[in-house]
Amino acid sequence: MKFFSIIFCLILSILISGCQTSPSAQQQIATTVLIDTAVGVAVQNGTTDHAVWVSRANQIVSIATELQIVANDSKATLPALTAALQPLLARANLGPADQLAANALIATLGQLIEQNIGNVNTTTQQVIQQVLKDVITAASVYIPPGG
């Protein structure tokens, strides 16, 4: 876990350095790595059982896909997205460990979205859509083809 803490600190320091300009290639890579890592931690949390990973990944994809519908609104905001997320999480009926992992993932993504809002030529909606797309891509790695 210490490795992940070091990686998160490194990536966050890269992301924090300069939010009022278009993201650099380094920031875009750091963002992707951060999302991939956060999703991976949430999916693999406490188990090596691949069936559990697939189930968790499917839940993440399902929730992120539903949130994309909310984010399609041109007036989408982070608070609106958070409000839409609560019933989806309740419906997922997560156990305590999974809920904690989901909370960590949500906090990471929320911070990431907030840091990227305000970039030149980037709307809130675009940032949210890109993060959700990246979450779906990261979670889909755990889902076998056709599964």
Order of helices and strands: HHHHHH
How many distinct beta strands? 0
Question: By helix and strand content, what is the structural category?
Answer: mainly alpha
CA-to-CA gap between the ends? 29 Å
Sum up the overall morphology in one term. Answer: globular
Mean pLDDT, as a whole number?
A: 74
Relative helix content: over 70%
Helical element count? 6
Topology, pairings included?
Blueprint: H1 2-16, H2 25-44, H3 50-71, H4 78-92, H5 96-116, H6 124-140
Helix pairs in contact: 1-2, 2-3, 2-5, 2-6, 3-4, 3-6, 5-6
Can you walk me through this structure?
This protein is mainly alpha-helical and 147 residues long. The protein has one domain (2-14, 24-140). It contains six helices and no strands. Helix 1 (2-16) runs antiparallel to helix 2 (25-44), helix 2 (25-44) packs antiparallel against helix 5 and helix 3 runs antiparallel to helix 4 (78-92). The longest helix has 22 residues, at 50-71. It starts with a helix and ends in a 7-residue tail after the last helix. Residues 1-20 have low confidence and may be disordered.
Index terms:
globular, mainly alpha, 147 residues
Q: In short, what is this structure?
A:
This protein is an all-alpha fold and 147 residues long.
